[in-house]
Write a structure and sequence with these properties.
363 residues, mainly beta, Porin, two-stranded antiparallel sheet
Length: 363
C-alpha cells in the first residue's frame, strides 16, 4: 500500500526543520568563535581574582562541564545564568559539598522559588578555602598553621517577558579572607543573561558575568601599597539541542570569551641630579582568554539521569581540559522529595580527581 503524500511530507518536514535549527545554532556559535579569535588581545591563563567562583556551583553543573547557560531543565541554578530563574517549578533547597585534594574545601547552598506564573528568584552562597597551610618565617622556621577563605553571595531574579524569551540579573557580593593583618576586601559584581527558546528541542543564551567585580587591597600598614585586582569579565554564548526522536538526549554547549584588565609596573632607569636612579612606569593591559565547554545528559529511567561534560576546551591544549561525569537520582522518601547528584571531575594539569555531592529538597 502506497503511503499518502501527507504521511511522507510530515516526517520529512520535521527532519528538515531539525537540521535547519541545529545548523543555525552551530552557525551562531561558530561566528562568535571566529569574531573572538580576531580580537587583538594578549592570551593569559586563569590567574585572576575570584577563581574559586568560576569552578561551578553544584554537582549537576560540574558533571555537565558547567555548560548550563542554555539548559531547559527545571530548577537549574541561576548562578549559571540568571535568565534561568523563571525555570523554577517549586521551592528548592540545595546543599553541595566538594572533596578536593591539597586541603581545599568547597561548599555551596541555594534556595530557589518561583514568583508568580513567569518569574523566579534564587539566593545562594559559595564558600571555598584552603586549610593546614604551613606558615614559616624568613629563616624557614615553622611559625603557625594558616588558612584562607573566600565567599560569594548572590541574589538572582529572572522573568519570562514573552513566551520564548527570558531575561535575568544577578547581584553578587565577594569577600576574601587571607591575612589577619589585612582588611578583608569586598567586591560587588553583576550578571546579566537572556535566553531564547527556538523550539521545544533547542534554545540559545547570552550571559555577561562578573561585571564591575574587583578586590581592592590596602597593605600599606605591612609595608605594601594599595592594589586593585579586577575579576575577569566573561561573555558566554550558550546553546542546547535535544537529539533522538523524543529529544531526551540533551547536548549543551558554551563558548566563553574572558577579558581581564591588569596594571603592569616596570622599573625604568632614569637620572636625578646627575646620579642614576630608577622610576616605575605603570601600563594597563587587557588580557583575553577564550574557551568552550560541552555537556551531555540522558535519562536512563524516570528517576535516574546520567551526565558527562568537558570544560576548558581550547585552554592550554589537552593539559587544561577538565572532563567530568556524574548522575542524578530523584526519589520520594515518605513526604520528603529528594534529588541527589554526584560529579567526578578530573582537574587540569594534575592527575587528581575532585568529588562533588549535592542534595536538593523539593517543597
Amino acid at each position: 500500500m502506497t503511503p499518502a503524500p501527507a504521511a511522507i511530507a510530515a516526517p520529512v518536514t520535521d527532519l528538515v526543520r531539525s537540521r535547519m535549527t541545529l545548523r543555525s545554532l552551530t552557525s551562531v556559535l561558530l561566528l562568535a568563535t571566529l569574531l573572538a579569535g580576531f580580537a587583538p588581545f594578549v592570551q593569559a591563563q586563569d590567574a585572576a581574582a575570584g577563581a574559586f567562583a568560576r569552578m561551578g556551583f553544584d554537582a549537576r553543573g560540574m558533571a555537565l562541564g558547567n555548560a548550563l547557560g542554555a539548559s531547559d531543565a527545571p530548577n537549574v541554578s541561576p548562578y549559571y545564568n540568571p535568565a534561568l530563574a523563571p525555570e523554577a517549578t517549586e521551592q528548592t533547597l540545595t546543599a553541595t559539598v566538594g572533596l578536593l585534594s591539597f586541603d581545599r574545601q568547597f561548599q555551596s547552598l541555594q534556595f530557589g522559588t518561583p514568583l508568580g506564573p513567569t518569574a523566579g528568584v534564587s539566593l545562594g552562597l559559595i564558600r571555598a578555602g584552603v586549610d593546614d597551610i604551613d606558615g614559616r618565617d624568613s629563616n624557614g622556621n615553622r611559625t603557625e598553621t594558616l588558612s584562607t577563605d573566600e565567599f560569594a553571595l548572590f541574589l538572582a531574579f529572572g522573568n519570562r517577558f514573552a513566551e520564548r524569551v527570558s531575561v535575568g540579573a544577578s547581584l553578587k557580593l565577594f569577600q576574601a579572607n587571607y591575612l589577619e593583618d589585612v582588611d578583608n576586601p569586598l567586591g560587588f559584581g553583576l550578571d546579566l543573561g537572556v535566553t531564547y527558546e527556538i523550539n521545544d528541542r533547542s534554545s540559545v543564551s547570552f550571559v555577561m558575568s562578573d561585571l564591575l567585580a574587583k578586590y581592592e587591597w590596602n597593605t600599606s600598614a605591612q609595608g605594601g601599597r594599595t592594589n586593585t585586582d579586577r575579576f575577569p569579565v566573561r561573555l558566554r554564548l550558550a546553546g542546547r539541542y535535544g537529539f533522538l526522536s523524543d529529544g531526551r538526549l540533551n547536548v549543551l554547549v558554551e563558548y566563553e570569551s574572558r577579558f581581564t584588565r591588569r596594571e603592569q609596573r616596570e622599573r625604568v632607569p632614569a637620572f636625578s641630579g646627575g646620579a642614576p636612579t630608577s622610576q616605575f612606569r605603570t601600563e594597563s593591559l587587557l588580557l583575553h582568554r577564550s574557551g568552550g565547554r560541552v555537556g551531555v545528559s540522558y535519562p536512563l529511567a524516570e528517576i535516574l539521569e546520567v551526565r558527562g561534560g568537558l570544560d576548558r576546551i581550547g585552554v592550554d591544549g589537552t593539559d587544561g581540559l577538565r572532563p567530568s561525569a556524574g548522575f542524578g537520582v530523584r526519589e520520594s522518601i515518605g513526604e520528603l522529595d529528594l534529588e541527589v547528584s554526584y560529579a567526578l571531575v578530573l582537574e587540569p594539569y594534575v592527575a587528581d580527581a575532585a568529588n562533588f555531592l549535592s542534595v536538593r529538597m523539593h517543597f
